[in-house]
Design a protein that fits this description.
With 224 residues, the chain is of the alpha/beta class. It has one domain (11-223): Metal-dependent hydrolases (TIM Barrel, Alpha-Beta Barrel), CATH 3.20.20. It is built from seven helices and nine strands; from the N terminus they run αβαβαββαββαββαβα. The chain has helices at residues 2-9, 32-41, 56-64, 97-106, 145-159, 188-196, 209-223; strands spanning 13-20, 46-52, 68-77, 80-85, 110-113, 134-139, 162-166, 178-183, 200-204. The N and C termini lie far apart (64 Å). The chain binds zinc ion (2 copies). One zinc ion binds next to loops. Residues 74, 81, 114-115, 121-122 line the site of one zinc ion (ZN).
């Protein structure tokens, strides 16, 4: 009986990569099969599909795999990229950051300041406000990695926002290199609630040089 009680007190943990692009992004080659294979390899319980300015990839892939998919979108704003999590509709691009965050909230989603200090990536920099729900404090693709991580953690602490991590994967082998561990059940609502209640911790490493080169090569060949 005592053992049973202890078991009940234990909170469940889920491991999620909150930033993955599918083939629906012009610069990604990740398919539903890749998601299944690499999520298993990296012990992920769920993945957020966050294609550039469109939700179609997330909705389609959710039907093609048994893996839990959190529907998302990476929106290009006037001042940088913003990720919407748990969003099932397109969010218009090229709006102000404030309007984009409002639009994501109206659609029932969470607004995440992704790779806020990364170079060459469309980053928000100083345009982050407390209106955001979370900061992506680890993004494996962000360069320079440690500089971006340090600055992102600092702004998350200053604004008292949740931390999330994602790889920004465009190639299969990058999936799960960064991940968030949440105290949540394995469903979208519970995971989103855990972010809002800051029951999450971030982990992750930068892309290796070979992963970066493969990513660049895939972008060039896919666009031809
Ligand atoms: Zn981005
Ligand atoms: Zn991205």
């Amino acid at each position: 009986m005592i053992i049973l009680k202890e078991k009940l007190l234990l909170k469940k943990q889920v491991r999620v990569d909150f930033h993955v692009h599918s083939t629906y992004s012009s610069d990604s080659i990740i398919t539903s099969k890749d998601l299944t294979v690499f999520a298993k390899k990296r012990s992920l319980d769920a993945v957020a599909i966050t294609d550039h300015n469109q939700i179609a990839g997330a909705l389609t892939l959710a039907k093609k795999t048994d893996l839990l998919i959190i529907p998302g979108i990476e929106v290009s704003t006037e001042c940088g990229h913003v990720v919407g999590l748990n969003v099932k509709q397109n969010i218009p691009r090229n709006m102000s950051v404030d309007d984009t965050v409002d639009c994501i909230h109206k659609a029932g989603g969470l607004a995440v300041a992704c790779h806020p200090f990364a170079w060459f990536k469309g980053s928000l920099g100083k345009n982050i406000t407390e209106k955001f729900d979370a900061i992506e404090t680890i993004n494996s693709s962000a360069f320079p990695f440690l500089y971006c991580k340090k600055k992102s953690i600092k702004i998350a602490q200053q604004l008292n926002l949740a931390h999330v991590a994602g790889t920004d994967a465009h190639n299969p082998e990058s999936i799960g290199l960064a991940y968030t561990v949440l105290e949540a059940d394995l469903n979208v609502d519970s995971i989103i609630k855990a972010i809002l209640e800051k029951r999450c911790q971030v982990f992750g490493n930068p892309l290796t040089l070979s992963m970066r080169l493969k990513q660049k090569y895939a972008r060039i060949t896919k666009r031809k």
